[in-house]
Structure formats: structure tokens, C-alpha cells
Amino acid sequence: MTGNEVNEKLAPLTKDQIQENLIKPSHQIDMDDIVREGFPTLREVADEVAFPLSKEDLILGEKMMEFLRNSQDPVIADKMGLRGGVGLAGNQLGLLKKVIAVLIPNEPEIDEAGNEILPTEPFKMQEVLYNAKIVSHSVQDAALETGEGCLSVDEEIPGFVVRHARVTVEYYNKEGEKKKIRLKNFESMCVQHEIDHTNGIMFYDHIDLKEPWAIKDGMLVIQ
Ligand SMILES: [Zn+2]
Where does Fe cation bind (predicted)? Predict the structure, then answer.
């Protein structure tokens, strides 16, 4: 199914109807629920969610996390036709709510014999962030060595996606507790990608189209 067909399918629904469909107990979010380029919410600023969290917004966060978990499970992802993802934002589901799910796996550890073993902690970061915002950042920039991809963008767009190397992010968790976290490396890039979504910004907005692989002064390249 192409992005356009998804857009036509979702266009007549109100945002309340979209969310209602997403959070049905029997529903698992799949690629058909993810809007692609051209869908208006990808270029709009989402609204903050209210606390205490509504049951609907709580379930939405859980469903988004379930999608990421499914997308990283080779068997389930294959069966459901999911692209692997480490982050998902409400705007990508056709909603204008500041809800972000992040699920970043830890790399396998290597034992003395050189075999890969499952890490003790499966995830580096596993969190649903409500109303997340960057409150401070490093002067230094950084980019992922291989560029970035996005579940809402079907083609590859090569180039360094230049972001802040380190960020301090404030958000609310599902219990309504205010959290403040400092992020660097891959986690920093991933969370900035998702916060951007909630502000209508796409990853390729940060690529220098003239010199997509230029390493600017002092820019950290993250492997
Ligand atoms: Zn994205």
C-alpha cells in the first residue's frame, strides 16, 4: 500500500476517530496506521497532553511501545510486515499529541570465546515520553554515521542529519511524574528525531543537501 492510499484512507477520519481505532484492545499498530510524507500532521506542531493522563492517552502510549517491540522482533515483524523502528511519535499516526515511544536495544555482548550473548539489560532506553521538550543542549553537533531513516519516509535520504550532540530533555511519564534526562550518542539522536516529529520537523530538514556528508567543524560522528 502506498503512502497516498494510506492518506486517503485516513483523511476522512477525525483525530478522535483515528485514536479510537488505534487503541481498540484487539488492534496492533502496523504500517498501515503510520502516515507517510504529505500527510498534514507530519508538518504540524502537536498539542501537549493533559495530566492526569486520560485512559486513551495511556493506552496510546502502550500501543506505540508495543509497535516498536513487534517491529524489533524478527518473527513478528516479518509476519506483520513491519519496518524495524526505535522511535515513534503521535504525529506519525495522524494525531497531534505530544506522545513519543522510544525503544533502543542494547548491543549483544561478546563472551570470552567471541560469541554474541544477549545483553543483561535488553534495552538502553525504553520509555513513553509525554510532552517531551529539549531544555538545553551542547554547543557541539553530532550525526549518525549512516544517516537516519524514518517510518514515515519510504525512500532513503542519504546524508548526515546534524543534531545537538547532547541534550537535556524534560518530559512526563505515564504516571505524570516530571522527568529530566541527559542524553548523548544514539539515544540523543533518536529522541531528537522524535521530538522533532512532534514539532512538524522531518529528519532531512537537518541534511545539508549541497554537501550531505560534510563533517562540519567539531561535529561528532556517531557509529
Ligand atoms: Zn521519523
Answer: 150, 193, 197
Of the candidates 97, 75, 73, the one whose C-alpha atom is nearest the C-alpha of residue 85 is 73
138 CB burial (10 A radius; 0-12, 13-18, 19+): middle
- The DSSP letter of residue 173 is -
Domain total in the chain: 1
| Residue ranges making up the domain that contains 75 | 3-222
Between vectors from CA 43 to CA 2 and to CA 102, what angle results, nearest 5°? 80
Residues in Cβ contact with 80 at an 8 Å cutoff, skipping those fewer than 6 apart: 28, 30, 31, 70
User: What whole-number distance in Å separates Cα of residue 74 and Cα of residue 221?
Assistant: 28
Percent of the chain's residues with pLDDT above 90: 87
Q: Is 37 a catalytic residue?
A: no
Which CATH number characterizes residue 194's domain?
A: 3.90.45.10
Question: How many angstroms separate the alpha carbon of residue 71 from the centre of ligand 1?
Answer: 14
How far, in Å, is the centroid of ligand 1 from the Cα of 167?
Answer: 18
DSSP H or E stretch at residue 69: helix 55-72
Kindly name the residue from 127, 148, 187, 194 that is annotated as catalytic: 194
